[in-house]
Each structure stands twice: as structure tokens, then as C-alpha cells.
Amino acid sequence: MIERLQSWAERLSGKAQQTRIMIFGDSHTVAIEQAIAFRADNPDPVLPPLELFRLRKVKGEVWLGDTGLDEFCKKISRLRPTDAVFSAIGGNQYAIPSTVRAPPYFYLVSKNTSQVGVNFEETIIPVRVLESYISSGVTNSDGPMLQKIRSATHSRVFHLTPPPPKEDNEFIKRFHEKRFAAEGLGRLEPHSPELRLACWEMQHKSLTYFCSKVGVELLPPPTATVCPRGFLDKHYYGKDVTHANRRYGEQVLRQIASVMGG
Asked: pTM value?
């Protein structure tokens, strides 16, 4: 009823409201923010306007972001069905078990795959065990936030799949976040790229199931950003283990424009 009244009022006034596109997330919004800033001097191709918000939270002793989840949900409660919300919350559950190769050493075994990240004298872990661990992170961390966003608005809701893992172990040894340094990265070696990709695929599988269950549309990484082996193409590396760069953010903006019919 409210939507019909809004539409009637717009026709009566002779002008239709512009479609609103709102993006909300955590650290993966940085690449998008950088792409938007770059576009101030490089506007081609022209893309639809959007509003970007980063989750406000404390990290260590520093506050990051500008908008709390409840505040964002109030904003999107006023959106119409023709508007859209794009979530970039969370996204790095796969990296927890697959970045730092520390004891006890392990590799994965399943009936469908050969050994992943094989070394002698390691522990064998069935794939379903690691799948369950990663899935619990998705369900218990990102899940409640996605559900709250979905329940707060009449608009379409999309979730941006996090960038696929980086293949280059030498790059990861040189550029990584403090949390991975604290776990020994730099002193210890990274896990094999194949293990990282396998864990990312487990996370994507879990996201696919969860999003379909709560009515959120899951978007894959932009096709141009993924190399033939399934890893993040080097052109789109951000300078740490898990994040992408401004060029990746630009591809996401174009992906959003395509989804919205731009």
C-alpha cells in the first residue's frame, strides 16, 4: 500500500524518484571507497549514483567506519522495491585456517579430491570437518547481520562474495595483516595456495546456501578479477592477505551497475 501511494504521488508530481543503491560492509568496502574516489577524476563509464557506508566498530583501540548496523537498517527501511542494498559485510572466514602453516600440520582428503597441500607426517582432516568449521563462521558471524538487513527493507538485497584468495605465497609473506604476523606469518610459511582456494570454495558454498535460505541474492566476484585457476588475478591484489585493491572496487561498481540495469 505504501509503495503504491509513493508511486501515485510521484506520477502526480510529474517526476519519479531516482533509484537508490546503498552499499554496507566492513573492510571490503575500502576497495569500493577507493574506486569511488578515483572516479572523481575518471568518471567513464558513467555509473549510477550510490551511497556507501562502512560498519562502525572498534578495532584494538581505534574506531573504524561511520554507521552502525541498527542505524543502517533504519536507513534502508525507507527504500522501495525498485531500490537495492548491497552487502559487503564479513568475508574472510576461509583465511583463518588456510593462511599460516603452523603445527599441527594437516592436509585435506575427500573422495572427490586428491591431496591438497600435501606434506609428509601431517594429520589428515576430512573435508566435511573443515567445511563445518568455516560454515559455522559464516552462519554465526555474517549470518545474523545479513538476516537483519534482509528483514529491514522492501528492496532487493545482494551480498558481494569476498574476493577469491591470492595464489602468490611470496606476496603473502611480504604483505600481511598484523593478526597473521601475530600467528607467526613471516616466521612460518603460508599454507599452499590450493588449500586457501579449497577453503574459500567451502565458504562460498556456505554463503550460497545461507543467502538462498534468507532471500539474499549472492553475487560472485567480478569475472574479470578471477584468473583461470580460480584465484584473484594479481592485477587486483591489495597489499595484505585477504583484500583487493581499487581496481577490484571499480569492477564491483560496474557489476552493481550491470545488476541494476545500467
From this structure: 0.86
